[in-house]
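Page 37, continued from 36.
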């Protein structure tokens, strides 16, 4: 059983930058950033660790767009405020729906707080299922 930081996990799951890769240390639960293009100030120490222990470090892929949309749709279906629910649902038909969704949520502070908790819970469940299914690793996310 490993414990993973939710804050660090969120950064890794939402990473869209091709030059940055996030890795999970399967022994400690730590999440580490690696980049060939950016000096991270570790003098290549982590790159060496990746070479020496390739089975220890698991590349964390960002949440697929389709899965993120599913989370957004599921959350929208649970919103109690009808006006907010309609506005959120309408964002899916707009250009750049994720951006429009977040802009809409910003107008509803209470719903924004609920969204963040909901998204964190779903992301944690996604990672726990992925680790269990693919690597037989049990994880607690805090």
């Amino acid at each position: 059983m490993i414990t993973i930081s939710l804050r660090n996990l969120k950064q890794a799951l939402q990473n869209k930058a091709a030059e940055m890769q996030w890795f999970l240390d399967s022994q400690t639960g730590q999440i580490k950033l690696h980049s060939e293009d950016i000096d991270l100030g570790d003098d290549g120490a982590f790159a060496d660790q990746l070479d020496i222990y390739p089975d220890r470090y698991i590349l964390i892929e960002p949440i697929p767009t389709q899965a993120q949309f599913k989370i957004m749709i599921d959350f929208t279906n649970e919103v109690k405020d009808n006006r907010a629910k309609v506005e959120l649902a309408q964002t899916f038909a707009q250009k750049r729906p994720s951006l429009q969704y977040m802009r809409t949520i910003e107008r509803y502070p209470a719903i924004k707080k609920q969204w963040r908790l909901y998204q964190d819970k779903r992301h944690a469940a996604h990672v726990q299922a992925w680790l269990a299914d693919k690597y037989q690793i049990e994880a607690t996310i805090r």
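Strands lie at 2-4, 21-25, 31-34, 57-60, 139-141. Flag for discussion at group meeting. The chain has two domains: 2-62+137-141, 65-133.
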